[in-house]
């Protein structure tokens, strides 16, 4: 098949907040040296932390669909636009991965793709990432997760390093999904599981296409939507009731104040992600922060000249008091950024920096590989040779 008529598989990578989607996407991008992958990243939160994490790691760019869940807050025509651009022969992509926000309804995305009129788009399957350590708690709060798993083509049971073998066996049995389940730590799965899609007719059977279309026309969600309950007349979306708070500060944060905030974060504040500038307390590093439920980790990485020194955080939760969280975060900034920090000021933070051996997968994630020719994304037009230049930071 020549490149102009080639169909490009478009894969949806979904999974609850913090399950490890970005980690898995970064692994795929790194591991697939021979495959040209395009990535579309959808963040739930007005600062695009995931887009930064994917693009930043690779010194390249990612199409970012910005704030809101791709399944409804983002107009499906916007998705079509990106797909049109990414599937152009000049982009020379072999596969496109859409990382859905952690609160997306995967069936809506699948419907959008199946309804796409772009002849080069071939739906490539739904991968659901599950956090092995948080699965029971997540399912208790969101039974609809089972519905998501039921339509998945592949389930990645991630964070196996955080649970005992007996617990894993119990989880495997309780997932009760018809799809294949692969286990992973830090999303390190064989990319071939993702990029060899079966013909679409077989996939539709596997996906129970009738179920997907049970109560509405494909792609009909975007125009007929109530943001609090989901699509009108349909099942409530997972993100109904979830709120996100974005916090940015050009003044460094005080590590002790931030830790006091994190130690007393409210129950419903399920996910925190972003980057922190601790100023004089550690002028060499910025700190990636990830909280999932009660789990907290900081990942220091050297500041580079390309990045502005600032703190950017996204907080996502249900039943949270957004203005109060903003006030509490604002109270975490240092009073005098030039003041010498108290001795041991960073100790509280460093307790949550994983030991290198504990964090092998994350370390792999932190490696910044050479710019990879295969990592084409859109946003810029390729030059005549079909190459992409440097792209601007998606958060700008
Ligand atoms: N221990 C452990 N941590 C992991 C694993 N995979 C990912 N993480 C960590 O879990 C946190 C969340 O990972 P992400 O890849 O950002 O999760 P996500 O699903 O993209 O998160 P959202 O975009 O907020 O939904 C990060 O701190 C990761 O380093 C794993 O297998 N084991």
Automatic annotation (TrEMBL):
Pfam family, any one: CobW_C
Top-rank taxon: Bacteria
UniProt-listed CDD domains: CobW-like
GO molecular function terms attached to this record: hydrolase activity; nucleotide binding
Residue ranges occupied by any CobW C-terminal domain in the UniProt entry: 242-333
Catalysed reactions, semicolon-separated: GTP + H2O = GDP + phosphate + H(+)
Basic and acidic residues: bias regions: 365-380
Region of interest called Disordered, as start-end residue ranges on this chain: 353-396
Keywords: Chaperone, Hydrolase, Nucleotide-binding
This protein's GO CC annotations: cytoplasm
Family: Belongs to the SIMIBI class G3E GTPase family. ZNG1 subfamily.
Listed name of the protein: Metal chaperone YciC
Origin species: Streptomyces hundungensis
Lineage: Bacteria, Bacillati, Actinomycetota, Actinomycetes, Kitasatosporales
Gene responsible for this protein: yciC
């Amino acid at each position: 098949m020549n490149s102009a008529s080639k169909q490009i598989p478009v894969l949806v990578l979904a999974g609850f907040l913090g399950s490890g989607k970005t980690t898995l996407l970064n692994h795929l991008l790194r591991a697939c040296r021979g495959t040209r992958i395009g990535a579309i990243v959808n963040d739930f939160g007005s600062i695009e932390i995931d887009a930064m994490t994917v693009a930043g790691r690779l010194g390249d760019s990612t199409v970012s669909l910005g704030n809101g869940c791709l399944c409804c807050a983002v107009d499906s025509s916007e998705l079509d636009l990106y797909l049109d651009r990414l599937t152009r022969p000049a982009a020379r992509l072999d596969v496109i991965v859409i990382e859905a926000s952690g609160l997306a309804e995967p069936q809506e995305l699948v419907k959008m793709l199946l309804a796409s009129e772009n002849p080069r788009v071939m739906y490539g399957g739904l991968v659901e990432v599950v956090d092995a350590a948080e699965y029971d708690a997540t399912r208790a709060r969101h039974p609809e997760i089972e519905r998501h798993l039921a339509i998945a083509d592949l389930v990645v049971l991630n964070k196996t390093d955080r649970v005992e073998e007996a617990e894993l066996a119990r989880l495997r049995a309780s997932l009760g999904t018809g799809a294949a389940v692969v286990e992973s730590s830090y999303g390190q799965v064989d990319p071939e599981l993702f990029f060899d899609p079966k013909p679409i007719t077989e996939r539709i059977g596997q996906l129970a296409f009738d179920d997907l279309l049970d109560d509405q026309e494909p792609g009909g969600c975007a125009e007929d939507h109530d943001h609090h309950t989901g699509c009108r007349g349909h099942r409530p979306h997972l993100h109904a009731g979830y709120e996100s708070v974005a916090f940015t500060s050009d003044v460094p944060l005080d590590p002790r104040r931030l830790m006091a905030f994190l130690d007393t974060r409210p129950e419903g504040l399920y996910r925190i992600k972003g980057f922190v500038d601790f100023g004089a307390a550690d002028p060499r590093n910025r700190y990636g922060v990830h909280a999932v439920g009660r789990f907290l980790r900081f990942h220091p990485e050297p500041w580079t000249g390309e990045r502005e020194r600032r703190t950017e955080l996204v907080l996502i939760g249900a039943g949270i008091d957004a203005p109060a969280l903003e006030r509490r975060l604002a109270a975490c900034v240092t009073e005098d950024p030039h003041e010498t920090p108290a001795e041991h000021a960073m100790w509280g933070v460093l307790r949550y920096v994983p030991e290198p051996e504990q964090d092998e997968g994350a370390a792999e994630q932190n490696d910044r590989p050479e710019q990879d020719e295969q990592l084409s994304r859109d946003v810029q037009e390729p030059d005549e040779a079909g190459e992409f230049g440097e792209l601007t930071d998606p958060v700008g």
